[in-house]
Design brief:
Largest sheet: 7 strands, mixed
Helix content: 10-25%
Strand content: 25-35%
CATH topology of the largest domain: Quinone Oxidoreductase, Chain A, domain 1
Number of domains: 2
Length: about 325
């Protein structure tokens, strides 16, 4: 049996290669992938060669070993069925639908402790990684009752973050994005207002500015906008990864006396502030519960076969206004 694996070969170049399907080791299972989701943030940085080449791919995910240098396999949102078991694996795993933080590949091996069992529809299950990031951002942001919150960037992660925040008793939830389609989705998911970056975002937030601004656009200039829209002693949470793009900030004016806190947030590890009560398993359990309740079907705008991967990345790179969440299917 022959499998297929996606490789990033160089700047704006991907290929799909045939690979042998391996037999599972004693403590492994073989997963046959049915769907995988493209991350339009991180994967586009890899696609465009906007990442530090010698940076580790992800030290917390075994399937993403090595560095971010070409050629490499990348991706972290695969859903499939367990097709074969190693001799030490319990029979209950056979045929189970699972999510894995794994590159785009038609078949792969994994230990059961690397898999997330799920009964969600396959398309919805591909959002587990992005929803986990959204949950992490909301946990780190700690929104309080009556606060004014702005979310910059309404890609898949930003939209999921907006949807989670919409369940809080906030005074105002403002979404900011360049693209009309994403602004419409943000309103559908619960944003009170959704604006383009060149509109009056501070006016829409009201008061002296946001109590909490979450920057998820992947655009360095948006960080400066988020700081400017945040009120005295407010917080700016930076969830974007800019790769090799530099962020130029205007910190010489009102910021100097603003007491605004700027902090990073990233999903790979649970923040030490939560580690006494939370671990990744508990967080993933919450993610699955929330995805089962959210209406996310409209986030899926395009589906490609893996063989058409070049067209999928070209769409996200050149016609970003048309796409939100793009999937691969494996027939």
């Amino acid at each position: 049996m022959t499998g297929r694996t996606l490789y990033f070969d160089g700047p704006r170049s991907v290929s799909v290669e045939e690979t042998p399907v391996p037999d599972p080791g004693p403590d492994e299972v073989l997963v046959r992938t049915t769907r995988s989701a493209i991350s339009p943030g991180t994967e586009l940085l890899v696609y465009r060669d906007e990442v530090p080449e010698q940076m580790a791919t992800d030290e917390t995910i075994d399937a993403l070993d090595g560095t971010l240098s070409y050629p490499l396999r990348y991706g972290y949102a695969a859903v499939g069925e367990v097709a074969a078991l190693g001799r030490e694996v319990d029979e209950e795993w056979r045929g189970r639908q699972v999510f894995a933080f794994h590159p785009h590949e038609s078949h792969f091996l994994a230990r059961t402790d690397e898999l997330v069992p799920t009964t969600l529809p396959p398309e919805t299950a591909t959002l587990i990684a992005n929803a986990e990031a959204a949950v992490s951002f909301v946990m780190d942001g700690r929104p309080r009752i009556g606060e004014r919150v702005a979310v910059y960037g309404q890609g898949p992660v930003g939209l999921l973050t907006t949807a989670l925040l919409a369940a809080f008793p906030l005074d105002r939830l403002v979404a900011v994005d360049c693209f009309e389609r994403r602004r419409d989705l943000a309103r559908d998911l619960g944003a009170d207002v959704a604006l383009a970056p060149d509109e009056d975002v501070p006016g829409a937030i009201g008061g002296d500015g946001a109590d909490l601004a979450i920057e998820l656009s992947g655009t360095p200039a948006a960080l400066d906008d988020a700081i400017g829209a945040t009120g005295f002693a407010g917080q700016v949470l930076v969830g974007s990864w800019y790769g090799t793009k530099a962020a130029t900030l205007d910190l010489g004016g009102a910021y100097h006396r603003s007491h605004i806190r700027i902090r990073s947030s990233q999903v790979s590890r649970v923040d030490p502030d939560h580690a006494d009560r939370w671990d990744k398993d508990r967080r993933l359990g919450l993610v699955r519960d929330r995805l089962a309740e959210l209406s996310v079907d409209d986030l899926f705008t395009h589906t490609f076969t893996l063989e058409a991967a070049a067209d999928a990345y070209r769409l996200l790179d050149e016609r970003k206004a048309e796409a939100v969440q793009v999937l691969f299917r494996y027939d």
